[in-house]
Amino acid sequence: MSLLQIAEPNQSAKPHEHKYALGIDLGTTRSMVAVVRSGKAALLETADAKTKDNLLPSVVYYGTANDTNAPIVGSEALSYFETDPVNTIISAKRFMGRSVKDIKFSHPYQLKSSETSADAMPSFVTGQGNVSPVEVSADILRTLKDRAQRALPDDSIQGAVITVPAYFDEAQRQATKDAAQLAGLKVLRLLNEPTAAAVAYGLDRAAGSSDEAQQERLFLIYDLGGGTFDVSLLKMNEGVFEVLATGGNSALGGDDMDRQIMGWLLKQANLNPKDLTAQQRTHIARQAEGFKQALTHRDRVDVSIDIADIEWSGTLTAVDLIQIVEPITRRTLATCEQVMRDAGVSIEQLDEIILVGGSTRMPVVQQAVEQFFNKTPLSHLNPDEVVALGAAQVADQLIKKDKSNNVLLLDVTPLSLGLETMGGLVEVVIPRNTPIPVAKKQTFTTYQDGQTGMVVHVVQGERDTVEHCRSLGRFELYGIPPMKAGLARIEVTFDIDANGQLSVSAFEATSGVKSDIKITPSYGLSDEQQEQLLRAGFENAAQDKLSRSLIEAKVEAEREVLALQSALQEFGALLSDTEVTDLQQAMSALSDSLNQVSSSLNAEPEQLQQLKADVEAKQAVLKPLSDTFAARIMDQSVKQSLAGTSTESW
Ligand code: ADP
Ligand code: MG
Which residue, 376, 373, 351, is CA-closest to 363? Predict the structure, then answer.
């Protein structure tokens, strides 16, 4: 008889075996994986034969130029970009969780809309078939996972922490998780990139070691990558990180510098960009990137252009570069200023500035930041790697369940989340900037007698009316027992988990009917749109207040008309014919005014005031008539109940 190997559940049969968790920075331009070994976080060798560095270009080639007919990932894929751009997917991250109507930036790809929903992500049409952005990300993640598996002992990887920009919405986060799942990676947590950078610099612990420990500390994370600029304000208080505010520009980064440098080169060489083919421009832009990177370590670099019968060579100096990229650094700093102003934070209040992203290695960027903030930014860790290093530390804490240094990495909701209520109004359930994870419950009721179903429509945004907010999804709750309007008690719960993912459930309390459906978020919301929604909320506050009061008056009046209609059916005989006619006339006059309200909700304030006055006037006419009617009904029911009492008592 053989012996069974016995181990406690959840415990390894080999107690001394090491367990690892990966920290993955899934970047727009480059991706990488880090892990904590012997207490120290470091990037894993991704053994890229060509670049010999540990950063994996976030590029996948799906063409047929090679014979393998399988996707090629990384720097080898990048080499196809000039010759076969349509099949070389770069910056897939920008397409994650976006619908066709969200994709406003230019790109060389042919997109195919989803057949199931207009809100779903489109696919790239490639030589190897249609591939969704999620699949592209999955191919990148799979490559990183394979390399990590080769570098670490067999079966030792417990999962991964994957970083996402702080402004990523539900759809974008879900798409990222889907990609990880497709790549066979267990996601321990999605982590905001700026928070990861702060962890890498040990800012979660630094405060705990001194007397100032209990004080709040503020950090600004300046992340200038290849195609995007992100700025985040983090607050650290008693071991808890909170994202106070985020901002940025999804079309500003190192690529723009390359284009500016290209413009400078063409001007020097007396070339008109219009005379060049797209391929030639791509070629020069890539050359420009090389010159730019060389200037990070040198004061001057020899430059040359050799295309279209024209040969030109010259010198590009660090001083030229300051001039060339000045418009870009200026815009990043203006964004920083805006974010601080929104959050009510001044430069003097900032405890640290952290530089993240490949472009912050440039001395010109470092100097501009230092000058603006009047403070030397933290940059001693490699700005390319900090996000992955921080993610690896959090991943390690999560698998060790390290209680001694259990950083609660709090984030906040970027936009308010709420429900549609009668009249197209938004009832906010979780306000903007609420720390997550969070769960909130709110009770709603039915509007009509005998109503047995209800649509729960979840929206995101700062405006008071649904049409000005973004629809996240809707579901239905059925099986509410028929009751008088207002008696049902429907509890709707909004739950946002630590990854920033939202689920909404509804429950009717008197009957116990439940519908804990998870909402499928409609895909897409760019940071510009998010910014727009936010700004719209501030700019339209007064107008919103007016339309809200008008809509509230309208909903109330409609409820009155409905109640009167059902009363007329039941008790109409209590009124004379003229009384019925008068009542019906007053009701239809009010209904007419109400219809007008519905079609003019976007009118000018004066007109809204006028509409409201009109509704109130019609209500004033109706009131005495409906009061008389109500009194009759009362009389009758009192008589009936008296009659009832008498029969019973006799
Ligand atoms: P992302 O987060 O968008 O993936 P990265 O943080 O990897 O981007 O940054 C990529 C950008 O950094 C590219 O524009 C690249 O040219 C630039 N970059 C990388 N190294 C250097 C360097 N040594 N000097 C200047 N720019 C650099
Ligand atoms: Mg990045």
Answer: 376
